[in-house]
Write a structure and sequence with these properties.
Blueprint: H1 4-12, E1 15-16, E2 19-20, H2 35-47, H3 49-59, E3 65-68, E4 77-81, H4 88-95, H5 105-108, E5 112-116, H6 121-132, H7 137-153, H8 161-175, H9 187-190
Parallel strand pairs: 3-5
Antiparallel strand pairs: 1-2, 4-5
Length: about 200
């Protein structure tokens, strides 16, 4: 349902023929589970509590909270909005309004929740790195990359695309074993702030 009219219609249409509608782009999505599955999910949530705290501390005000979710199967994390807030699609529609005032931007931004998939190998390895050394600079860089890629895949736009591009370039250099202090000119890297920024 990607048509702009769908966003307005579904705010009023709560159910149809006894079946309630649930927006999967918002938090609070509960999937049917048996007792064994519930127990497994609780154990996974407990094991990622420390990681969630580190991710929240790293991202600061960029996200309202970081939680462990159960909706994901192949992605490491996703950005969801509050149950009664605007979705990424609605935020995009409102930002495109020709007659909007500049004062609208304060309440136009969705309150974002980063929902992580504890079963994903990336999250598992990140959790191990946090347990080994919570101040590891690589962990912070990876958290920012995961957050920004989640913004894109969840339908939001990036505030600073050049910073995101520079992070990707650094990852490519790492993958190609290129020394970051080499003589290869990289215009974008010059203006990029240190990735280990304290957001407090």
């Amino acid at each position: 349902m990607c048509d702009p009219m769908d966003e307005y219609a579904m705010q009023q249409l709560k159910e149809f023929e006894g079946k309630k509608f649930k927006n999967i782009a918002k938090e609070g999505l509960e999937l049917a589970q048996d007792e064994e599955e519930k127990k497994r999910v609780e154990e996974l949530k407990k094991s990622t509590e420390e990681l969630c705290k580190i991710v929240k501390d790293t991202l600061g005000e960029k996200v309202e909270k970081v939680v462990t979710g159960e909706r994901l199967s192949s992605s490491p994390c996703v950005i969801v909005t509050g149950e009664f807030g605007w979705t990424a699609n609605m935020e995009r529609i409102m930002k495109a309004q020709a007659l909007r005032s500049s004062g609208m931007s304060s309440y136009m931004t969705s309150k974002k929740t980063l929902e992580i998939n504890p079963s994903h190998p990336i999250i598992s390895e990140l959790r191990k790195k946090v347990e080994k050394d919570k101040n590891d600079k690589t962990v912070k860089d990876l958290i920012w990359l995961l957050f920004e890629t989640s913004l894109l895949t969840s339908g939001f736009s990036l505030d600073e695309p050049t910073t995101f591009a520079a992070r990707i370039h650094r990852m490519i250099k790492l993958g190609l074993s290129i020394d970051d202090t080499s003589d290869i000119p990289d215009q974008q890297d010059e203006d990029v702030p240190d990735l280990e920024v304290d957001n407090e």
